[in-house]
Amino acid sequence: MKQKLTSSVRIILLLALTEVGLAGQSYPGRPKIIRCRSLEKETFSCWWKPGSDGGLPTNYTLWYSKDSEEKIYECPDYRTSGPNSCYFDKNHTNPWTTYNITVMARNEIGCNSSDPQYVDVTSIVQPDAPMNLSLETKTSASIMNLWAKWSPPPLADVSSNSHVYHYELRLKPEEKEEWETIPVGVQTRYKVNRLQAGVKYVVQVRCMLDLGEWSEWSSKRCIQIPDGKSPPEKPTIIKCRSPEKETFTCWWQPGSDGGLPTNYTLLYSKEGEEQVYECPDYRNAGPNSCYFDKKHTSFWTIYNITVRATNEMGSNISDPHYVDVTYIVQPDPPVNVTLELKKSINRKPYLVLTWFPPPLADVRSGWLTLEYELRLKPEEGEEWETIFVGQQTQYKMFSLNPGKKYIVQIHCKPDHHGSWSEWSSEEYIQIPTDFRVKDMVVWIVVGVLSSLICLIMSWTMVLKGYRMIAFILPPVPGPKIKGIDTHLLETGKSEELLSALGCHGFPPTSDCEELLIEYLEVEDSEDQQLMPSHDNGHPSKNAKIIPKETDSDSGRGSCDSPSLLSEKCRESRTLPSTLQTQNVRDVQENKGGKRSWETQCIASEQKIVLFNDESTKLSTWPTAQLPDNQPPMFAYHNPVDAHKITLSTTNVNVARVLVGNEEKRQSQYPITETCHDDVEKQKGMENLYSKTDQTTVQVKQNRPNDKPPFLNPKLMDYVEVHKVRQDVEPAVLLKHKENSRKTKKYTVPGTSKEYTKVSTVVDHNILVLMPDSRIQHTSVSQEPAMETSQNLQQSQAEKNMSYCLTVPSKCKRENNGSEYMDPSSFMPSFK
Amino acid sequence: MALARAAGRAGASAGLALLWLLVCAPGDAGCRLLSVADLFDRVIRHSGRIHSLSTALYAELEKRFPPRDNELGKPARKCHTSGMLTPNGKEYAQKIPREELTHLILKLLQAWKEPLSHFNQHIEHHQELPDDSLSKAKQISNMVHELKTGVEKVTEKMQSMGIISNSLNGMASSEATGLSISNEANMMSDSDFIHCFRRDSNKVQSYLKILKCRIMPENSC
């Protein structure tokens, strides 16, 4: 255009020149700056329109000045932007400067300049239009898309290609006037949707920098959108399912429709039939499905099912699907699942699950039988526990962890065929904890209490162990005499006496035996002590003897309990009681040593003589004179008893007794100070044995008690009778074997005759004196060789007597007239 | 495999159960008088086991001899009992008279007695078949016998109690049809044969269930 203009101008000028040349020449006309424009903000160009050249060749010069300077420059580049233009490159372009531009035309005649043009670069930015626009159609998922691509506008300076353009695209069907303009952004491509198939579209793009103006629209491009009409792809039958074994439904997945509305047809044929039917109901089960109602559902036959997709262009048929309705039954999940927590008798909670078959399934007809399976897990658990339940519609669950929340689900399936239903919705149940905690609390309380009780018990046991033991294991009852008939004693009928004492029949009864077995060991030890030189056979017999002894003993002393005795002992603190207790202790304690006596004495707080010398006595005597078993017993008991008895008696009278220690005994009397008197007494008693002339009275007194059985053995042991005169004064000479030199006279007035009978003559010139009734006994006892049970018994009887004597009782009052008599009863009065 | 073993075990125990059923026929002294419901439960359970066994056997045969077109129910398959008119749906089975339904069950069982024993003899010569399959086939054959006897017992009992009429007797005698169609059975392939039997065993079970619930609707139906 410019060129045309210029060329036409030139023609005019030429014409003018020729005219001028003919008519006359003039100065050029005034040029005009048409526009200035920057493509990319870094360079700019200006174009001008020349005026008339005045018939002469004209030169055009562009001058410019900057607002910051006075200096005037000429255009740096007249060629880059074409004729009648000036190009300002990067070096001559300053975006923050306002340029004052003037164009001057000059010829031979004169010159003329244009009006000045003020140029601000940033305000004159306008890029060129994008280039290389191309169009393409693509089909994805049966939808047609148009893709447009282009490139940014070209720049003179190829190196500066870093500009960011924003693009706009416009399109319209070719035959229409209205453009549809779409902002694209900075991308150089765009996908156009919603195109009408079969229509020719015209597309243009333009661009813009972040400032300035939009470029021109690019050149038009046209594209024909294809029609896209094709036959549909073949559909796929997904599945067939019968929810209740009466009807069934099949679903299919359509392929692409080829861009055309497509119809789907389900066709089926039954096994053994040639005829093909169409789906009876497309709507009931939703889109792309076919519902076979009861009429159209047959069992035990195979359906051959296909789906055909059809559009204008053609049709396509799915692969056949073969279905035997019997085996495609998949029921709905069970409904109304309820969880209930119940308590059993032992208070343990258990879970009861109940549910109902799906409402569609007609289980009552027998046509469909459902089996159930349930699963549960703790809420936070990972793995389900699955339980097959069978046909029942309830289930009880035990052994659930208390305190946990469980999730339960149930599903069902027809028996023998078909498939499991979906799981029912999750049901939650919280298993309570408190049941167990309560139990735990109860158990803890019980445990603490019981341990407390145990602690207390053991504590008390430790503190009061002795008493407890005494309480649990009561002391053996001591011998006790109900009473002694003094008359019997006086008459000397010992058998009667014995019977009076309670021992009926001489062979002791067995129950007596049982009662006092503890004697056994006592005697044993004593025996061994007493008879170190004995045969082996003897101890055993001793052992035999002893229980019997004790029998008879206990047989008599069954009245009072040992505790009573001990109480008495404590209360009275009398000598007799002491003796008694000593006896009792003697019986109880197996040690048999005098030490035990001692301790017992102390224990009972009795201060009496301690017969420590006894052992020495006993040990010395037997060696000298005891040939058989009996003597040791006597030796054991009798001396003691004798001592005691005499003691008691001497207590009464012995004040007069001379305390002369004629006997030289090795034995020492360990005497406590408090017991001093007693020692003296004892000594006195010993004196009795040896020399008492004065003690006749005492002997008398003693005799009723026990002397007959008691003293005789003693006499047997160590008394030699030198003279016996029954009619006259009975005089017994007591002679210790050891101390044979001391011979004393034992005078027993009156009644003493019973004792003076000679039972046997032992050895040489030794007489054994026995009461009448007891002659046999003594004789027996004197036979060392003979050890018969009878002997033993008899000796025991004697022994018993001795015990009887020693045992104190309350019989004192009855002393005179009564049948019973307690030797010890004498003593308290003396106290 | 495990399924097959389980099925075998089930079959064995079922045989025992049915033996007891037979020994303890109603009227026997020293035997608890079994109710019709009990008898029904037993034959239903028995038919269920037969169905399980045949399913397992069918799976084994399919695995060993895959059908050429690899499709379930190819159109060529035609069971020798498909000529029998049997109810093919719930409502139909509920409408049909009890006597007729009973008769149908017996007829179906009868129709399989002979072909099954033939089948047993036939597959014994099959070298490829495992012993497990052979024993299954044998068991099926025996159990069908037992089931038929059991159903007859139930029928007798029902007739004696007047639950169904005696009109059945005339129909039951027409066993010639069974023989005629058994020839058809011999023409089938092994897997087709078992497929057909499996279907009919399921039919029998379903009819028995329907029958039971029709006669005793209160009894767990």
Architecture overview:
The complex is a heterodimer of chains A (831) and B (221). With 831 residues, chain A is α+β, with helices and mostly antiparallel strands. In chain A, the strands form ten sheets. In chain A, strands 3, 4, 6, 7 and 8 form a five-stranded antiparallel beta sheet that branches. In chain A, strands 18, 19, 21, 22 and 23 form a five-stranded antiparallel beta sheet that branches. In chain A, helix 10 (575-588) packs across helix 11 (594-603), helix 13 packs across helix 15 and helix 13 (630-653) crosses helix 16. Chain A is elongated. With 221 residues, chain B is mostly helical. Chain B contains eight helices and no strands. Chain B has helices at residues 2-23, 36-64, 90-95, 98-124, 131-160, 168-172, 176-186, 190-215. The longest helix of chain B has 30 residues, at 131-160. The radius of gyration of chain B is 18 Å and the shape is elongated. The A-B interface holds A 245-246, 271-272, 294, 297-302, 304, 320, 322, 324, 326, 362-367, 369, 391, 415-417 and B 48, 51-52, 55, 71-75, 77-78, 82, 86, 88-91, 93-94, 199-200, 202-203, 205-206, 209-214, 217, 220-221. Chain A: Pfam families: EpoR_lig-bind, fn3.
Condensed summary:
The complex is a heterodimer of chains A (831) and B (221). With 831 residues, chain A is α+β, with helices and mostly antiparallel strands.
Keyphrases for this structure?
heterodimer; A: 831 residues; alpha+beta; 5-stranded antiparallel sheet; 19 helices; 34 strands; 30% helix; B: 221 residues; mainly alpha; 8 helices; 71% helix; elongated; disordered N terminus
Number of continuous helical runs of chain B: 8
Which runs of chain A of at least 5 residues are low in confidence (pLDDT < 50)?
A: 13-22, 508-756, 773-831
Largest interface in this structure: A-B, 27 and 34 residues
List the total number of helices of chain A.
19
- What best-fitting shape of chain B do the alpha-carbon axes yield? elongated
Number of strands of chain B: 0
Helix content of chain A: 25-40%
- The helix fraction of chain B, in percent, is over 70%
Q: Taking all residues together, what is the mean pLDDT of chain A?
A: 67
Low-confidence stretches of chain B: 1-17, 19-23, 25-30, 172-179
The portion of residues forming beta strands of chain B comes to under 5%
**Global structural class of chain B:** mainly alpha
For this entry, what is the oligomeric state of its chains?
A: heterodimer
Number of strands of chain A: 34
